[in-house]
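Quick log. Single chain, no ligands specified.
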Amino acid sequence: MAVRPPVHRARKRFGQNFLRDPGIISRIVRAIQPRPGDRLVEIGPGQGALTEPLLMAADGHLEVIELDRDLVPGLRVKFFNQPGFVVHEGDALKFDFRALRGEGAALRVVGNLPYNISTPLIAHLLDAGDAIADMHFMLQKEVVERLAAEPGGPDWGRLSVMAQYRCRVDSLFLVPPEAFVPRPKVDSAIVRLTPHATLPHPAKDEALLFQLVRQAFAQRRKTLRNNLKGLVEAEALEGLGIDPARRPQTLGIDEYVRIANHLADAEVRP
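-> predicted structure:
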């Protein structure tokens, strides 16, 4: 007789929306292309809808990180006969992904991320990018649009620069609300983040770069001359080939790195 996991109701405080559509699940797994030998890590497995096909494709080896302790017993019951299935109970925002990798192969991270923590969690994972081979996430469509945006567009901002500085970003496909239980009020999308083996535009001081970008985008409608006042003079921007009358969303990553490297050389901090 099959063992049934306990019934669990989605919790709003955890941002839980459980994926149910088998067609969408299959499409996600095809996009990930898991293989035997992969170091797969799933964040927020929920009730295991995506976990099961990932386990099958990865020859029974998968590690998951689950914050909701009430979901953990159900996962252990559902996959009790999979010795390569490992559950880490805890908060992915505080999880040490470098320690998890250890001396082994780089991690392949997947997950249906709660909308309320998606941006800080992505930032946390980008900080551990040297331990990660790639990431596939289900996110709110607007977040994916910001991640994959191009300079000059309305969605280009701090998150775009932070992600694309460290990763190649590919927006894959949309997921409608009816694919979930309960149905969210927004559309979702699948995105792939692949950390660069070699940074296209390396900054001399990454912390300084991101502080610069934060200050530049503090008021999107204002010019660089206004937003960066007190940090870098208009004449210095002109010397770097950047018009101080431009707005922050018009600059590409190479230009932000150019300014940050100038500040690093001058030992200037925001």
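Residues 253-265 form the longest helix (13 residues).
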